[in-house]
Design brief:
- With 390 residues, the protein is α/β, with parallel strands linked by helices.
- The protein folds into two domains: 78 residues, Urease, subunit C, domain 1; 294 residues, Metal-dependent hydrolases (TIM Barrel), CATH 3.20.20.140.
- 24% of the residues lie in helices and 26% in strands.
- The strands form five sheets. Strands 6, 9, 10, 11, 12, 13, 14, 15 and 16 form a nine-stranded parallel sheet that branches. A four-stranded mixed sheet has the order 3-2-1-4, with no helix packed on it. A four-stranded antiparallel sheet has the order 17-18-19-20, with no helix packed on it.
- Strand 18 and strand 19 form a beta hairpin.
Length: 390
């Protein structure tokens, strides 16, 4: 999606994640980044009319966020998609754009094969908007190939055995729009499913699993490259059996998604995770937001059950944690507020890192200049953001 700025813009005195010192970003009239150059670089610019210069005075500039695990918003759960309610998708895309998100993977949690197929069909036939809105980058199937013991809030009656035949039945004719699938690798003793999914171009993420460290390592050897919401719905780290998460943290080519709402994982454990996993390469933030995202606290339907949302945290009636309703970029602000990350690292965890996880480029020239400006207020110790060229 290209956002026309009408006039070319030079953004100067900017800090950019991954770049040293202050930078200037040259954006053309089509809204494309032409160059990212250190301040003071001598260059010849093609003469242009109506050039705007924006001095951000040392603020951070980044692309918008990418959310690889979001279950719904504005009252619509993505597994409940059908033709009759598909008109809500554009509203969600615009809502997410206004919340600083450039792109996302609608996430389908465990439900019936019929519901999965129906939702995939709606998304496959959806025509993107030609306005400022977050882009659908593919679909994340979180299930139904999950371990019963670690299913969390996923309904047990729809869990399926992990076989190629069952995978084919779930994917149907829509494998081409599935970007990520979360599964429990220990459910496949044949070691056939992960290579099959990789042959289809689908990224395999491990989660809702009882996998041991050895089973996790084997899954990574077979082609899995991600872990879904680190710590949640998997065995805890243990000094004699590090489990799936231990295998992931120590693997150089595996990236872990994590939730920074303060409820799914304590800030102290997040600090341990980030220190242990070389977070500049191995972690990315997700929201794991549910359908009440964008709505006030209250009780809402969730498949055939209900969830209660209090202070942005959603739970089933029995107290089972089921997700959040906090926007993705709140996680960035939390990481800085808790003293876990510096501003640059926190921004990268929600912008560059998730793009890397699904093989998209970070902030480089030739990218659309869908830019956020982040400001750190030293007096209030608050991090805020705004769309820069919207």
């Amino acid at each position: 999606m290209i956002q026309a700025t009408q006039n070319p813009v030079d953004i100067i005195n900017a800090k950019v994640p991954g770049y040293k010192d202050l930078q200037m970003l040259l954006v053309n009239h089509e809204g494309i980044i032409e160059q990212i150059l250190p301040m003071g670089t001598v260059f010849k610019r093609v003469p242009v009319n109506d050039l705007q210069v924006v001095d951000v005075a040392g603020d951070w500039i980044s692309l918008g966020g990418v959310d690889l695990q979001i279950n719904g918003a504005l009252g619509l759960a993505f597994p409940d998609l059908k033709t009759e309610n598909s008109h809500i998708i554009p509203k969600i895309m615009q809502f997410l754009w206004n919340a600083g998100v450039d792109g996302f993977l609608p996430t389908l949690v465990t439900t019936s094969v019929e519901n999965i197929q129906r939702s995939l069909a709606v998304i496959a036939n959806f025509t993107p908007l030609a306005v400022k809105s977050a882009k659908i980058l593919g679909v994340h199937l979180e299930g139904p190939f999950l371990n019963f013991q670690k299913r969390g809030a996923h309904p047990a009656e729809y869990l399926l055995p992990l076989t190629i035949d069952e995978v084919k039945r779930v994917l149907g004719d829509y494998a081409h729009i599935v970007k990520v699938i979360t599964l429990a690798p220990e459910l496949d003793p044949t070691d056939e499913v992960i290579p099959y999914l990789r042959s289809l171009g689908i990224i395999v993420s491990l989660g809702h699993s009882q996998a041991t460290s050895a089973q996790g390592q084997r899954a990574f050897e077979l082609g899995a490259t991600m872990v879904t919401h680190a710590f949640n719905a998997m065995p805890p780290l243990h000094h004699r059996e590090p489990g799936l998460l231990g295998a992931a943290i120590t693997h150089p080519d595996v990236m872990c998604g994590f939730i920074a709402d303060g409820e799914h994982v304590s800030p102290t454990m997040l600090q341990i995770l980030l220190r242990a996993s070389n977070y500049e390469k191995g972690l990315f933030l997700v929201s794991d937001a549910l359908s009440p995202l964008g709505l006030p606290d209250g009780v809402y339907p969730w498949d055939s059950r209900q969830i209660e949302v209090k202070n942005g945290t959603a739970r089933l009636a029995d107290g089972t944690l089921s997700g959040t309703t906090l926007p993705l970029l709140v996680g960035v602000q939390n990481l800085v507020k808790w003293g876990i990350c510096n501003v640059e690292s926190a921004i990268a965890l929600v912008t560059d890192a998730p793009r890397k996880a699904i093989a998209l480029p970070g902030i480089v020239k030739s990218q659309a200049a869908n830019l956020l400006r982040w400001h750190w207020d030293e007096t209030t110790k608050q991090l805020s953001w705004q769309r820069l060229l919207s």
